[in-house]
C-alpha cells in the first residue's frame, strides 16, 4: 500500500548509515559562509575561512535549497531506474555513493564549491536515486501502481531526511559561533 511505501522510505533513510552521513556532510557547513579573512569575499584574497552566518533565515533557506536539489536529483534517477529506462550496476552505484559522501566531507574541510553546495547535492543525488531504486527493485514493484509506490517511497525518504534535518540543524545553528564548531566541522567531516 501507499503508506507502507512511505514507511519503507522513512525506514530506509533511518537505517541507511550512508544516507545519514551524506546528510550530515551537507549540513555541517550549512550554518557557515566561506569568506576572506576580513569578511568580504574578494577575488584576489588568498586567505579564506568559514565564518558563522548571522541569521537563521538565510542558513535555513540554504539548507532547504540544498535538500531540494538533492530531492529533485534522486527523484529523477529513482523514476528512470524504476521504470527500467536506465540501469547501472549496483556495485558502481554503491561505490559512487561512498565517494559522494567522502567528497562532500572533504569540501567541508577544503571548500572547492563554496556557495554551490546545491550543485554537489544535485550531482550526488542522481547517484543516490539509483541506490534508492535498488530498494524498490528488492520489493518487486511492478504494474499499475508503480508510480504511486515510487511517490510513496520518495515521500518517505523526504520525511526521513526532514526528521534528521529538524533534529540536527538547530543544534548546529546554536553551536556555529562557539569555539567548538570548527572542530565539529572538521572531525564530523572526517
Rg over C-alpha atoms, rounded to the nearest angstrom:
18 Å
Low-confidence stretches: none
| Morphology | elongated
Please, how many helices?
A: 7
Strand content: 5-15%
Largest sheet: 2 strands, antiparallel
Offer a quick outline of the entry.
It contains 7 helices and 2 strands; from the N terminus they run ααββααααα. The chain is mostly helical.
Question: Overview of this structure, please?
Answer:
It is elongated and about 55 Å long. It starts with a helix and ends with a helix. It is mainly α. The protein has 7 helices and 2 strands, in the order H-H-E-E-H-H-H-H-H. A two-stranded antiparallel sheet has the order 1-2. The model has no long low-confidence stretch (mean pLDDT 84). Helix 1 (2-15) packs parallel to helix 6, helix 2 (17-27) packs across helix 6 and helix 3 (56-82) runs antiparallel to helix 6 (146-175).
List the helices and strands and how they pair.
Elements: H1 2-15, H2 17-27, E1 32-36, E2 48-52, H3 56-82, H4 90-109, H5 117-138, H6 146-175, H7 181-189
Antiparallel strand pairs: 1-2
